[in-house]
Amino acid sequence: MDKLLKKITNCKECAPYLELGVRPIISASPKSKIIIIGQAPGRIVHNTGIPWNDKSGDNLRSWLGVDKETFYNPDIFALMPMGFCYPGKGKSGDLPPRLECAPLWHNLLLAFMKDAQLILLVGQYAQNYYLKDKAKDTLTETVKNFKTYLPKYLPLPHPSPRNNIWQAKNKWFGVKLLPLLKEEVAKII
Asked: 117 lies in which domain range?
């Protein structure tokens, strides 16, 4: 797996399209027990090179019920975005993840992580890619039907602070899904 991770960190596939240049962000181990597939790194993560090293990461760790030390242990969590590099800024936030990364690298990475017991699909890009026609019409409906995708997948909204309004409108998320998520994570780790 080390050779594969080195190939990924040296990838220049999307270089012409990335305003801040390439800086693939990935953390994984053949021993990873939980795989978190998110969208793409934001500007802060791009600058630091540390996945989920922002407010979204703080929220995600809170949802999981883990501290930073546990979260950044690749033998516990693989942190694998749909697009490995910061895609740049769009009109209403960051651009979507580049489409090249997941088909190029995900299956190769997943083949090494045979001990994984749960894959968290964070955001609509990951959900649509992995759930395909089983994903519902909206992220809300997909996440609301989370039990449908267990035990392999658990869909989540993006933990961005911008989604606090979504959480306020969808109280079931904090009441039903988050306690189950914390329980599953505690059992696995």
From this structure: 2-188
